[in-house]
Design brief:
By secondary structure, the protein is an all-alpha fold. It has 17 helices and no strands. The longest helix is centred in the last third of the chain and has 38 residues. It starts with a helix and ends with a helix.
């Protein structure tokens, strides 16, 4: 009875997470469909450009959803239209063998999926607001889609294209049936004072986008190399290391719910360090599996990180549909050129030059993420002060304690009290 009551009380957030998962399955399958059909029809050299176009199409779809809402088009019509276009182009992607027409289908294919992705992230952001388990819900939504995608890749055999089409169609039809509730739709242009960590502000937005762009260029360059090796049959990206993607996502979701996201940034940075170290071994085929494992484990944390930093703040903005999916949108725009340039740098300049670029991006990522975490830590103290009824003086002390540059002596001096009094307060 208790479990039933919990499900009933949280029906809307759970439906929203399911809606997101049903969007993600076609997205994961579409990436493999584009890679496999392009390599089969036109050769391995054109796989990375097609993959980059896939990312650009996805980003345009995210922006297109917001533009459609701003023009007054009803959300349901936007979603149903994009699903219809996507299902038609899903069939076309496996049969169109003219290169330019194939590229056009790829763009339409992925931009229509980007529209449903924007709707799914908006729904998740609005309905998971204030939930203590929003990180786990996001992680489980991604993990469920990845597990189904992995099963199709491994067990469909020669009927894989048919299985992919069927899974995509069923997934999108189910998404229509459980379309998210209506109660958040009217809030698209409404500013909500939520007090969530990392609240609104132009400089804050710029910092968050910069973090996503730098992290995504790193991932994109590695992805370009890995996709190129996959197209040459030197590496199997559907093998068991991909399950570490699921593990990383689930672990990141659980960590995100602890102490107001306090552990997510250091964990993501730790795995980013592991990924940078793993790139040193991409030159040696015997270490491909280890490098791929590190890549997928990091990607799990990376995806949860860049998604949550925007879904957390989206309800506090004047345009939630835009900002809820901004992590995925900025990621796609950054990854698209990085995929092509990463493969070019690795093949043309050599592994040493590629590793130097990755190290430079890592050196840029660390201070940006730490700067954002410092601001978020101060916001968490502010939220806790209001939640637990601290006095104004206690709240000031807590904010100073959250500043890593402060110590008891400095805090006592700034408040005009003794160190003993400061500790007692």
């Amino acid at each position: 009875m208790t479990a039933y009551r919990w499900i009933r009380d949280n029906a809307e957030p759970l439906r929203s997470a399911a809606f997101l998962s049903l969007h993600l399955l076609p997205f994961f399958l579409s990436a493999f469909a584009v890679i496999e059909t392009t390599g089969s029809f036109f050769g391995e050299s054109l796989v990375n450009p097609a993959y980059a176009l896939l990312m650009l199409g996805t980003a345009c779809g995210y922006l297109g959803f917001t533009l459609a809402l701003r023009r007054g088009i009803e959300q349901r019509k936007v979603i149903l239209s994009s699903i219809a276009v996507f299902i038609l182009s899903t069939a076309a992607i496996f049969f169109v063998k003219n290169f330019w027409l194939h590229m056009l289908v790829v763009f339409i294919y992925t931009s229509s999926l980007g529209v449903t992705g924007a709707a799914a992230h908006w729904s998740f952001a609005m309905l998971s607001r204030g939930l203590r388990w929003s990180g786990r819900a996001l992680g489980e939504a991604y993990a469920a889609a990845l597990v189904v995608e992995y099963a199709i890749q491994h067990y469909a055999g020669g009927s894989q294209p048919a299985a992919q089409c069927a899974a995509i169609a069923v997934s999108l039809l189910l998404a229509v049936l459980i379309e998210p509730p209506r109660n958040w739709r009217s809030g698209a242009a409404e500013t909500i004072s939520s007090g969530l960590p990392g609240g609104p502000g132009k400089r804050r937005y710029i910092l968050l986008i910069a973090i996503v762009v730098v992290m995504s260029i790193t991932v994109g360059m590695c992805d370009g190399v890995i996709t190129g090796l996959y197209a040459k049959n030197q590496l199997d990206v559907t093998a068991y290391p991909r399950l570490l993607y699921v593990l990383g996502i689930l672990a990141a979701g659980c960590l995100a719910d602890l102490r107001g996201r306090a552990f997510l940034t250091p964990a993501t940075l730790s795995l980013l360090t592991l990924l940078v170290a793993a790139t040193l071994f991409l030159r040696s085929p015997e270490y491909y599996a280890a490098s791929l494992s590190a890549y997928y484990l990091y990607c799990g944390f990376y995806i949860i990180y860049i998604t949550l930093i925007f879904t957390d703040i989206a309800p506090s903005t004047a345009n939630p549909p835009l900002w809820a999916g901004m992590g995925r949108c900025a990621r796609s725009f950054a990854v698209a050129p990085a995929i092509v340039s990463g493969a070019f740098a690795f093949d043309g300049w050599g592994s040493t030059a590629f590793e130097a670029v990755i190290l430079a991006l890592f050196a840029l990522s660390v201070p940006l993420m730490l700067l954002r975490e410092k601001a978020a830590a101060g916001a968490r103290v502010t939220v806790s002060s209001a939640e637990y009824g601290f006095t104004e003086r206690e709240a000031v002390i807590f904010r100073k304690m959250a500043d890593p540059t402060e110590n008891v002596r400095n805090i006592a001096a700034s408040l005009g009290v003794s160190e003993r009094t400061c500790r007692r307060d």
